[in-house]
């Protein structure tokens, strides 16, 4: 299937414009699709300030008046590679989605709906074999792509749907009626209704989105399209995340020699001002949003010393949660360390130097951090949801195949019980080492997930 031409549209790509997991997932998939022989045009908004080598300015794109003028430039990004940046009114901002206070830009609907119709216009001129859209930011392109061009929609998180006023549906053209839902315009719902194939980012998440309690109001629509709904687990970039070649660690290590991992832990404890000691260190690298469940940890902090366990968290997001984590860290300085923001070097040091990874998500479409952590021999403590269930076998349920521990529900009591189990399990050197080696040698790369995408592309194009 080499030579298949795919237009791949997304709001984020690492390192061109990266906010969260969407950027990592989209980038990893594009790189591996290209490695497997596909011709992939990666398209994202021109947020400004990105210089491209060998830049080519395209003719103005044919879009409705409300989205004009729409322009595009192609070139080589020094880190990502070939990319196409699309400009529409209002898209250029210092942050893709929010201001310095974390408040969403009030015109995000106009910005991304404009970008989406420009993506469709670009597809009409470049005539790919297939268009692959990602999340609500690109979803409206499904209304304007030529009917003969197959459309794949990847849903990375069903909770974000881009809902806006109903008048927007009229502006999307003859197929805009598909976007009308619950009295408004719902970009994600419209694309789910129109796409030839909908991909969610793990097999378990596919089952969850079909249920009313976890379908974010779209479970009925997804059940109607269940024959076109597929779950494919995300991968991770194993060149970036791996202890054998990570420049952010004091010394390399691997599954056959985990001893140098201790130097990463020592460096981490020193940087965070945590005392050295025999107890395990649980780490978290996260967005501070309700989905990720780190508020469940707050009532447990006074009891962590009893386990015994120390915790170190790096994250940014909702201000109230950051304030409470700062307060808990100040009240329990030997038990909890919290760093607000994102620091690439510290993120690698946390995953490399931690003993356990903490990811108590209320829901998790796939999750990347648990796979990244297992590459470093850091055993995950997660909840039994979405992609966490698909990637973390509980050691207490299956000591021969286990990779970490899963809390049955997302609440503080279950989290405390699971942390107790994890501390006990970590204290068993034979059990711990076997689990570390299994996680470090498993294939978490994009190779197989990308191959599954290629097979789906092939079926659609041949159809």
What does it look like?
The chain is of the alpha/beta class. It folds into two domains: 5-235 and 446-462, Rossmann fold; 261-441, Glycogen Phosphorylase B (Rossmann fold, 3-Layer(aba) Sandwich), CATH 3.40.50. Helices cover 34% and strands 18% of the residues. The chain contains 15 helices and 17 strands. It has helices at residues 21-35, 108-126, 135-139, 167-171, 187-194, 203-208, 219-224, 261-272, 319-331, 344-353, 369-375, 386-391, 412-426, 429-441, 447-462, and strands at residues 5-9, 39-45, 53-57, 71-77, 81-87, 130-134, 151-155, 180-181, 184-185, 197-200, 229-231, 281-288, 310-317, 336-340, 356-359, 379-383, 405-407. Strands 3-4-5-2-1-6-7-10-11 form a nine-stranded mixed beta sheet, sandwiched between helices. Strands 14-13-12-15-16-17 form a six-stranded parallel beta sheet, with helices on both faces. The chain has a two-stranded antiparallel ribbon with strand order 8-9. Helix 8 packs across helix 10. The chain is globular. The mean pLDDT is 96.
Domains (count)? 2
Instruction: Give the CATH level 1 class of the largest domain.
Output: Alpha Beta
Q: Runs with pLDDT <50, length 5+?
A: none
Global morphology? globular
Strand percentage: 15-25%
Chain oligomer state: single chain
How many distinct beta strands? 17
Could you describe the largest sheet, including whether it forms a barrel? 9 strands, mixed
Summarize the structure.
By secondary structure, the chain is of the alpha/beta class. The chain is 34% helix and 18% strand.
